[in-house]
Amino acid sequence: MTPFGVRMTAMLTIVVVLIAGFATFVVDQQRAADRRRAAMLATQRAEQDAQARAVATLGAGVDDKTAAAPGAVAGLLNRQAREAAGQAMTVAAQIAAESSYDEARPAALAVQDQGLLFVDGPSTAPSIVSVYNGSAGWAAAVHGAGDTCFWVAVTPEGLTRYGTGSVCTGMAALAADRPAW
Questions:
Q1: What's the DSSP call for residue 68?
Q2: Cα–Cα distance between 73 and 61 in angstroms, integer?
């Protein structure tokens, strides 16, 4: 075999090994993400079951006037959504303290807080946080009860704003305009 052939064979072997290593890394990361999501969904289901049992217990043995109303469940969901939005803001601020809000993307947030699911798309539940970060700032939205969505946003100047709306995406949360919920 010629020296050129030996070099080509060695280079081809290295490329194949690198591709195989990268493929293994990607598969491992996907499996880890699937495990985190399954654990988060199990925890969320358990919390919802516990809340439903608590609401049912409140309504057991009382008349219709004092039974737990749908408003009680809505209050629980809204409280959970506000807490998730606040937690997302806290985690984003921790990341920003080490680098900047530009680094507070869903994947980086998920590494810091595995109790919430961070997504680029819309939030559909109180434990799913929709995140936006870009030139307009950083923002998060979390779905509460009904059509209520809780927003928190940080401007490029560092001003934190809060709000609510019906569109539940991080980009929509940029419209937050109040100092508190």
A1: P
A2: 18
Give the whole-angstrom CA distance, residue 160 versus residue 50: 33
Nearest to 163 by CA among 94, 51, 108, 82: 82
* pLDDT at res. 57: 66
Provide the sign of the torsion angle of the four alpha carbons 168, 170, 176, 180, taken in this order. Answer: positive
| Contact partners, residue 39, CB within 8 Å, separation at least 6 | 114
Dig out the tokens for 134 from the structure.
Answer: 């870009």
Q: pLDDT grade, residue 53 (50/70/90)?
A: confident
Mean pLDDT of the chain: 89
Average pLDDT over residues 141-146: 93
Q: What are the C-alpha distances in Å from 139 to residues 14, 131, 133, 165?
A: 43, 6, 6, 13
Give the integer Cα–Cα distance in Å for 57 and 38: 28
Cα 7 off chain centre by: 48
